[in-house]
Amino acid sequence: MRHGKKINHLSRKTAHRKSMLANMACSLIEHKRINTTVAKAKALRQFVEPMITKSKEDTTHNRRIVMSRLRQKDAVAELFRDVAPKVGDRPGGYTRIIKLGNRLGDNADMAMIELVDYNEIYNAAKPEKKTTRRSRRGGTKPAAGAAPVAKPAVEPKATKDEEE
Questions:
Q1: Which residues contact 124 (CB under 8 A, 6 or more apart)?
Q2: What's the pLDDT score for residue 45?
């Protein structure tokens, strides 16, 4: 059972895991997409999304928090300068994980993790969603045995007396 196990340890000690996730997050911020295993991609998503949320508000305190986790000055600068304005209106879900199949050497499940707002090809293909509302009660359809009601094709014009 997995009682109380919130994070995937990825078969690494704490220092190695934190360093690996920091390096992967810096690569993701720099290149906007990286290929890795599915388990690492899911762990990276939990690591990087809170930092992107912090970067929306550019304060010294938020910069120091992100810098303590990422440990690369260039990545922090790019996160606050370029990435944050692009995702400013999004309420979360800044990354997308796309499964790619298995790696040839060890048959590990591979995935591509990318920043959602930087894939113009994928975002451009999506049309605007139409909001349609329809009744599911069946009140508009006639009953099975009832004869259809004929509506007049043209409404009769009102006479002069009825207009006044």
A1: none
A2: 97
